From TrEMBL:
Residues 140-481 form the GS catalytic domain. One of its GO terms (molecular function) is ligase activity. InterPro entries: Gln_synt_N_sf, Gln_synth/guanido_kin_cat_dom, Gln_synth_cat_dom. This is Glutamine synthetase family protein. Belongs to the glutamine synthetase family. It comes from Actinomadura chokoriensis. Keywords: Ligase. The keyword Ligase applies. Its EC number is 6.3.1.-.
Length: 481
């Protein structure tokens, strides 16, 4: 399998992340210690997970006594999972496809945790390597690590966090029956499911997740949880852990949780907004937030503005990763707080890029940009890698943001939107895939294997749902995420 070379944007190629003999010995020793600790806590097995191109969290599990071997030598897994579609049918691209080949899953031991919601089980995200120890070019966690390292080489780091929305259904079956009936954002919804929400919060806390807030959302049966910002790898790991914890607690309560972009055709969908802040690492007073303390728009520094502008410029292409399903475009519509227009604004929830300053007095730490046009069908690792690459390109080019928008863009006359450079984001998955394939920056950053495989999987889903009604699309994806 080919490897992605060092890119024109600079930084390490994938060969820098290969697994050598000393690495195997070190990982095996650490895993043996971890296995003894977990066994003492009553843990019998560990779920090693990765997220595929369709956004489905896949897994292989090992008994704790096999954790040492798994860390050193990996667990076998076919590379064909990279071309699984949302319904588990299989596409085939230039890089991936067919029954041949093998990858090795290696647990990320620093993120190995007992799952409070699944007694007896631990969880660890997995890295995927070829049998010779080379990094798999479709391993999204490694791609994200590389983007983090590229920014670090320029003196920058990023803090990131996902807001995760989900809808709760009562009873079994394929239909969606809202588990609560209270008004949007109403306290009644907390009262109706107080025990369930208490257990969600408790399980997340015991699993090591720092919850910032939890609240009822707009759609029937819908809630949202926000977690603390951390490094991008940690943020992606946490996003997976949060979803699986919520799923497990829901089942324990006889409920079902859906993170699908469109649970019901006639209702608003679930988003997974991403918050990002850029930090300068080499300041004498400690890390400094480039989204505050500057002379740019609303206090951004020039670097913070350039980073945000880089993301704004590539939003159409980024949607092939961040809004990756046909169902995503049932959610991504104007005047639904989904961010359907490529514009930005201060606290504007209709802009695809919302700038958040935080309260007066905490802006130095709180200021960030929120990317709103994204949903939980996205692979969080691949999404963050692409967002960081776009932001880094903005830094290198010294980009500037256009004038901010402080109204719902859909309420402006088309002529005024055109004059202000406000354009709608792609209205279909096919449009976003075309933008993605044409984007030289993302191609250079992610590599040909990623570009081809993402496009292959997206076109497979487009064909899968060709001519389908919104109701059929929503029903077919409701319980896949």
């Amino acid at each position: 399998m080919q490897q992605n070379p060092e890119t024109a944007l600079g930084g390490p190629g994938l060969d820098a992340y290969a697994l050598g003999g000393r690495d195997r010995a070190r990982l095996g020793g650490r895993a043996a210690e971890a296995a003894r600790r977990l066994a003492g806590e009553g843990i019998v097995a560990a779920a090693l997970t990765w997220v595929d191109v369709s956004g489905i969290t896949r897994t292989k599990t090992v008994p704790v006594e096999r954790l040492e071997h798994a860390a050193a030598w990996g667990v076998g897994m076919s590379p064909v999972f990279d071309v699984f579609l949302v319904d588990d049918s299989i596409a085939s691209g230039r890089w991936i496809g067919g029954p041949s080949g093998d990858l090795r899953l290696h647990p990320v031991l620093e993120r190995l945790v007992p799952m409070a919601a699944l007694p007896g089980w631990a969880h660890a995200p997995a890295l995927r390597y070829a049998q010779d120890g080379s990094a798999h070019p479709l391993d999204a966690r490694t791609l994200l690590r590389r983007e983090i390292d590229r920014l670090a080489g320029l003196g920058w780091s990023v803090k990131a966090a996902f807001e995760i929305e989900w809808a709760v259904s009562k009873g079994g079956g394929d239909e969606f029956s809202p588990a609560c009936r209270g008004p949007a954002y109403g306290m009644a919804r907390v009262v109706e499911l107080a025990g369930y929400l208490r257990d969600v919060l408790g399980a997340l806390e015991r699993t090591g997740v720092t919850v910032v807030q939890l609240h009822p959302e707009y759609a029937a049966g819908q809630y949202e949880v926000s977690v603390a910002a951390e490094d991008p790898l940690g943020a992606a790991d946490t996003a997976v852990l949060v979803r699986e914890t919520i799923r497990a607690v829901s089942m324990e309560h006889g409920l079902a949780a859906s993170f699908s972009p469109k649970v019901e055709a006639g209702s608003v969908g679930n988003g997974a907004h991403v918050h990002l802040s850029l930090w300068r690492d080499d300041t004498g007073d400690g890390p400094a937030n480039a989204m505050a303390g500057g002379s740019g728009p609303y206090g951004m520094t020039a670097a913070g503005e350039a980073f945000a502008a880089g993301i704004l410029r590539r939003l159409a292409a980024l949607l092939a990763i961040g809004a990756p399903t046909v169902a995503s475009y049932l959610r991504l519509v104007p005047s639904h707080w989904a961010g359907a227009y490529a514009c930005w604004g201060l606290e504007n929830r209709e802009a695809a890029l919302r700038f958040v300053t935080g309260a007066e007095g905490e802006r130095a730490t709180a200021a960030n940009v929120e990317v709103k046009c994204l949903d939980a069908a996205a692979n969080p690792y691949l999404l963050l890698a692409a967002l960081l690459a776009a932001g880094r390109d903005g830094l290198g080019a010294g980009l500037r943001l256009p004038e901010p928008v402080d109204v719902d863009p859909a309420g402006l006359a088309e002529q005024e939107r055109s004059a202000r450079g406000i354009v709608p984001l792609p209205a279909s998955l096919a449009e976003s895939v075309a933008a993605f394939e044409a984007d030289a920056v993302l191609r250079d950053a992610l590599g040909e294997a990623v570009i081809d495989t993402v496009a292959t999987v997206r076109r497979g889903e487009i064909a899968l749902f060709d001519g389908a009604t919104p109701e059929r699309i929503a029903a077919a994806t409701r319980w896949r995420y």
